[in-house]
Design goal:
It contains 3 helices and no strands. It has helices at residues 14-28, 33-59, 71-95. The chain is elongated, with a radius of gyration of 21 Å.
Length: 97
């Protein structure tokens, strides 16, 4: 009978050192890894679309920037996302004993 050694999962191990930042950062924000991933990707995609539209507008000023992606709408979007992070963080702190 073989005894399995799971020492690679202990604190200070390579696997622990590699996974800890991926799990501790979202937890400190009151989110799961997947929830944090979705939030970060939604912001990244939104900023990518906005930057592409502004780049096209810079080269060809006749290309309009959709109201949904203009500076005011982007600032509103980022502020709303930031508030949702703060709300999640406060909710996770209130749950802890």
């Amino acid at each position: 009978m073989t005894v399995r050694n799971f020492s690679f999962l202990k604190n200070g191990s390579l696997l622990h050192v590699l996974l800890f930042p991926f799990l501790s950062h979202p937890k400190s924000k009151g989110q799961s890894y997947f929830g944090h991933f979705l939030l970060a990707m939604s912001v990244a995609i939104r900023l990518l679309i906005s930057s592409l539209l502004f780049s096209a507008h810079a080269v060809l000023p006749l290309i309009p920037i959709a109201t949904r992606f203009n500076l005011d709408a982007t600032i509103f979007f980022l502020t709303a996302k930031n508030q949702s992070i703060a709300t999640a963080r406060e909710a996770s702190r209130s749950i802890k004993p």
